[in-house]
Amino acid sequence: MLESVHTETQSLSAPSPTDLQSRLQITQFASDPSSTASQPGLDVIQGLSKTPKTLPAKYFYDDQGSQLFEQICELPEYYPTRTETAILQAYAAEIATITGPSELVELGSGSSTKTRLLLDAYVDMGLASWYCPIDVSGGILKQSAIHLLKDYPTLNIHGYVGTYEAALAALSPSQLPTRMICFLGSTLGNLNPQECEHFFAELTQALQPGEYLLLGVDLQKSVQQLEAAYNDSQGVTAAFNLNMLHHLNQLFQGDFQVNHFHHQSFYNLDKHQIEMHLVSQTAQKVNLAALDLTVEFEPAETIRTEISRKFDLETLKQQLRSVSQTGAQASGGGEIAAHKELTPLRTWTDANQWFGLVLCQCQEKAQVVQED
Length: 372
Ligand code: SAH
Ligand code: AVI
Known about the structure:
CATH topology of the largest domain: Rossmann fold
Largest sheet: 10 strands, mixed
Number of helices: 11
InterPro entries: EgtD (IPR035094), EgtD_Methyltrsf_superfamily (IPR051128), MeTrfase_dom (IPR019257), MeTrfase_EgtD-like (IPR017804), SAM-dependent_MTases_sf (IPR029063)
Shape: globular
Number of domains: 2
Bound molecules: S-adenosyl-L-homocysteine, N,N-dimethyl-L-histidine
Protein name: Histidine-specific methyltransferase SAM-dependent domain-containing protein
GO biological process, one term: methylation
GO molecular function: methyltransferase activity
Helix content: 25-40%
Radius of gyration: 21 Å
Oligomer: single chain
Keywords: Methyltransferase, Transferase
Mean pLDDT: 92
């Protein structure tokens, strides 16, 4: 699994640095986001060596990329953030009532802005709160953690700077009676169907029976509305897309000439997904010295940098129900096969059905398999 991991207590400035320090722990995996790969940057080499070319979406997120994403969330065309916020405003108290005192583990936490609605609900019910943000983008994770600690005097935070896989495999046991893994913002949609299936299996593995998963997912809607959200009039999404090339230049000693590419995004109706691409404006060669990689582009050739799938709630719930993790255990009269399953408990949407929240519980189904 992981190469370099270290845990630190953040050094913080006023007010009450000692108090904040004692409530914050950060586990930092190796500094670049490809650190879980057996070879750093292997996923970049693989993506740029195939036809059509692709790059993993996690490379959007250095400090600049995280800041651009925050700007996207405020755009008039980008409806997902404000719609999910409204759903959480309406139902966070109901979620907290169902789970009771629960540690929140958030995948791809970013600025943790929407998480505050869940934290408020636990605080309002007089429940203790523990928060474990997980994000490859260390700057925004640490900055948001410090703001949260200042605003929530009884909150404790253990943040993990690294990929979902690395952090999930290294999670400390829950500090509260139960745990809820939150995956908000429809970041699930950035995984393709196979990655999604594999990911659900990993989540089921990470959850104990009785624990929860809260998924926020963007739903299918008109092509016009979707394409506007990913082609905003101010060009912020274009800047976000192109920033991936700056990030790769910095990580892997690259010489991408960013102004020789342009942003393109469109809705693929067959696959129910937005696709973001970077289109080469000319025939060009790019070198990534740290990866010993030279890549040739033809004019108009594209790199697909992101898919953003748009879900149908019933199909998604079906898919969640079909996830099953089996752990076998020997017993006197045979073998007990314990299956962990994800059971959707409740779903909430907005009046337009633009966005959905799905709360699942990990449940154990034991089965004794008799020996012959
Ligand atoms: N949850 C927030 C942010 C979504 S943006 C919201 O709903 O607004 C997606 C976040 O996931 C970014 O902060 C990015 O850095 C993080 N991220 C993307 N791929 C990741 C990966 N493979 N592992 C860990 N974090 C990842
Ligand atoms: C983080 N993720 C869910 C966003 C999305 O909508 O797929 C990233 C994004 N890409 C372009 N705009 C926003």
